[in-house]
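User: My collaborator sent over this chain with a note saying "see what the structure looks like." That's all I know about it. Can you take a look?
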Amino acid sequence: MGMNEGLDLFRQLGTEQMVRRLRRCGIEADPDSIGRPVRRNDASGSYTYSGGQDPGSCRQHYRVVIYNLTVLECRSLGAGAAMKAVHRGGGYNDYSDGGAGAGGYSEISHGGSGAAGYSENSNGGENVGGYSENSDGGAGAGGYSENRYGGENAAGSEPRGAAGILRTTAVRALYSLGLDSGEVELRAMGGRRYAVTGIRPLMPAPGKPLPPPYRAASQALASALAREQAGRPGLLMGMDPEFILLRESTGRVVPATRYLPTDGVAGCDAGPPGTRGVFPVAELRPAPRGEPRALLAQLMSAARAADRLIADRSLSWRAGGMPLPGWALGGHLHFSGVTLSAPLLRALDNYLALPMLLLEDRRAAARRPRYGVLGDFRRQPHGGFEYRTLPSFLVSPVIAKGAVYLAHLIVSQYEDLTLRPLDREELHAAFYSGDKTPLREAWPPLEAQLRALSGYAAAAGSIEPLLRSIAAQQTWDESRDIRGLWLPRAPSISGAPPSRPGEPVQ
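Assistant: Without extra context I'll predict from the sequence alone. Here is the result:
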């Protein structure tokens, strides 16, 4: 598997386009430095967009070294005039452990000096653009649970606080510009905000080995991919889609913590800023399974558990992307038994997130860019990862079933899914604004490639209703109470499409 499959895209981007793409993802960028080409000692035949920081600036600067969306090193470059020595030194020797040419680098600690502190409950500032759907200290924060599948708040998965925000911002910046390996330079802006000041893609010289620290990471990735079997029979899936409880008479959200525990198959989680410690969001956490049908059965079981615990039958259950202003909800999917890579994430973005956007209620667009950005993921302590781009698909059993089967199919055979329409500037912008017209025009080739996969026939009965809804330009309705859709007295997950065009997806 090659690195930086979007290198041609990166090369075509001008300064303004780079800044716009980053800002769509909720990332600040300094146009005066990011667009100024600079040649470094070790970059023969290559280039970087990194002009260096203002020597008069007193803000802290960092350089993050990334391979396959994995942070290898995260170094403080100092502030102000101290940066001069760094840019004079150049070269991969910058990554030595405190050597003379390192310009006074120091490892970034979790909330250490220059890291703007550590927060027990919050894992993402507003400008990070979706690092955490809610917070990172909510349900399940005590660690792994059998039913939780190492959910989004499981301890030990990634650095928290400012250190986590810094790393996530760097990875997301690289990914949004079509890259997966290279260097990102950032400037601390205060308030846990970082501005991108430089992007340097990894471009190895022909016939020469990768320099450290990339070499070891490349060998580890190659070994992991070589161990995977065709079709990935060991793939395991889980999920934790969210919903809120609404009292229709007052229009107010009732905290899920009144009815649900923090752990278990039906539980509560933290909410948006201003709700810390309340855990207002409800969440279903079905036990992970290797087959979509078994996972959906677990989801139905989790919904029944939630119904038993939420005794107040007058409450409305709402799901989707943003059923109420300010209440962004996610439909996070978990995977293990597959190696996380940029091509896998881009396949999920183009073949899953794009069609789901075509079905979403217009209100769901407000979720982006704080949440739901392309390629939003989080590694988990069980060795897998969580794909966080989707809104809560609990809006409809038909949509949930189609999304689960489609995700399983994509992850099983993503090497055969090579189209990347979301790389195009106009479609990238359309995704973040929720403009469906150009995305609908781009969808048919993706749909045809999905249908051509060897495993599609077995999953067609579950995916086709979703595709028919897209063809009919139907959308879900986030103002609808979903409780009856998921309980025994409601229709089962039959896969039947809505009866008439234009109706909400059932």
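A starting point for your reply to your collaborator: Residues 38-53, 81-132, 134-156, 490-502 have pLDDT under 50 and may be disordered.
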